[in-house]
Predict the 3D structure of the following.
Amino acid sequence: MRILIVGAGPVGCYAAQLLKRMGYEPILLEEHSSIGKPVQCAGIVSSKLISTIKPFISESAIVNEINSFAINTPWTEEFYVNSPGIACILNREQFDLDMGKGLDIRLKSRVSKIEKKDSSYCVYTERGEVFVADLLIGADGTDSIVRKYMLNNYGNKYKNNNLKINYYYGMQYQIKLKEFYQDITNDSIKVYFDDNIPFFLWIILENTKILRVGVVATLPENAKKTLDEYLCRKNIGGEIVDVIAGKIAMGYIPAYYDNIALIGDAACQTKPLTGGGISYGICSARILADCIEEDKLEEYDPRWKTKFSKEIRFGLKARRIYEDLDKDNRKKLFYIFKKYSSFIEQAIEFDNHFSLFQAALNNPQILIDAGKILGYYMKDMIK
């Protein structure tokens, strides 16, 4: 089987590594001139994910282990959610390089057109190259050309109107500090919530000299404005040595049709409450590889959705509700979070937010307190 993967980010490379171990010879097309650049995510992943991909990465790909989150809002005093070893901070460039080691990656190969000829796909690049594939895998991110091609054909056949994708924009500064930042340790992440931020702002201390400050916003200019204002307000001095930015795609769409499969951001395999996408993408790449080995490609879409549909559909609803809350109700919501921080510590899972919601539903007092704020929405969320 001729397998072509468009996109050599960590999810595409992980799929290729698994397929290579199975005896296939996948080719990856990467539009950029090198692997690992430009970096387009914050680099925060669960420790469970690290254990999954350990055979493919080096120790230098992991910067720090995270043991707690410091939650900050305009309405409450800072409080902590402690969970030892819950997450890790990655050196994303090294992480991507490790994942791509030993693979057949064609750099500077931006896809310009896809055509179906008989039972195969012809993929053309801007450099004039032509690749023929029996199976085409789209791992080409939020602006996936493979997704656009697949969904267009899928929609034409099934007249499916549930193909809506919403976009957000993440931006992170890496700052070389003038002096040591004392407000946080390197095993904790400081998180800020505010009325003007649909997600949150985060601060990560890599070491005594390097700070990461990032945010997710509705528009790129909003993200930059928020970061600049925060640095000024907190009087954080230093040189911005790197800026990473990227779109985040959120939706619940088909990820397989007619020998085309989507993984990672191309498939909207993203956590709607945080915008993180590596974990769901990596797990879905494993599911896809298993389906290929078993010659059951048509089972890929139902299998990955069996694993993640509750998380994504719940997250999409919860995101809409959170963004719809006014200032007063957001204030009340974070008072509840602070009140039950010990409960959250026991129930929290970095990649599975629905499990925390389920646990909360089984706590009568939390249900009563949350119902006072979210009563209008609770029926829909439980459904």
Observations:
- Residues 155 and 178 are 54 Å apart (CA to CA).
- The chain has a mean pLDDT of 90.
- DSSP finds eleven helices and 17 strands in the chain.
